[in-house]
């Protein structure tokens, strides 16, 4: 076997998201794009804001000597300072550029954080359902991902979290607004989680870090607010990107920010800077760093995603589906009317509807719909959704 056993096993397991996306490509080749209703991939459907396009053009037109060269591994200092100023307002905690490291998206940020913090066998606890590729990110650096159940409405179950913490626990990883549920964890629950981690850190004799993956922070509905984890727990780190709120996932630009009150902050920042280099990222894309520095706080029109959410939820509710209405992100996570979510997703696929089984997110008995699609995809899929629900009622 040429490919390593480990990678071969990963390929065999695969990603349900990618499997359904690839199945959709095959169906579109047979039936035509307009006749296949693909809700598999969280690829933003809205174009980037005009301010992004203007900033990109201006940045390119003013590039001079050295603008495409290597820079400090943490990023252009001026870019880090610009982001720190915005994060100070967003988090309600004063940050400097020294607490920011520019990365190749949120995935790059998480890998940098895990590389800096994890020793072989260290545990990363994550509330489930969750983005299942976290498992691979932890494994990349010798860590072990452990799923912790949430409540039926996908809010944090702190008793379950406490029971899951062991002497090997090094990180608790959260994602709010959540992929795949759209749930936003409340301020009170995060304060309680912070108190739990403070107590458990004392008991275990080492710091348990809270890492928050926040690429959907700005995609919120009905006036919802995403709490600041920096105000809830000092030993905290944020990983995020501009992929979703600027609709630029292919540009691979994001950052990690460490709480200025964190113990061992300077050591962790040095470790993340080294990790950024030796993982092969070296530094985040120079051009995109300069672009995003100019447009802090800019994002697509979130009312469009809220309208799509309402269109989808109204249609599925009428068809008899049971779900928790999401407060953020652009995903819906309904229950399946049968226990076998894979079989139910297969039945939807017969109607040319592509969704992802909840088992792919450690949330069996559900399925994920990415509603960052054209309105016509949502509208034209409704007869198929209803037909399959009627079959299993």
Could you explain how this protein is built, in words?
- The structure is a single chain.
- The chain has 393 residues and is an alpha/beta fold.
- Helix content is 42%, strand content 13%.
- It is built from 13 helices and twelve strands.
- It has helices at 5-13, 16-31, 50-61, 77-91, 105-117, 134-140, 158-164, 187-204, 265-278, 286-293, 302-318, 341-350, 375-392; strands at 37-38, 100-103, 123-128, 144-149, 169-175, 209-213, 236-241, 254-258, 331-332, 353-354, 356-357, 367-370.
- The strands form three sheets. It has a seven-stranded mixed sheet, sandwiched between helices. Strands 9-12-11 form a three-stranded antiparallel sheet.
- Strand 3 (123-128), helix 6 (134-140) and strand 4 (144-149) form a beta-alpha-beta unit.
- The longest helix has 18 residues, at 187-204.
- The chain is globular, with a radius of gyration of 21 Å.
- It starts with a helix and ends with a helix.
- 48% of the residues are buried.
- The mean pLDDT is 95.
List keywords for this structure.
393 residues, alpha/beta, single chain, globular, 7-stranded mixed beta sheet, 3-stranded antiparallel beta sheet, 13 helices
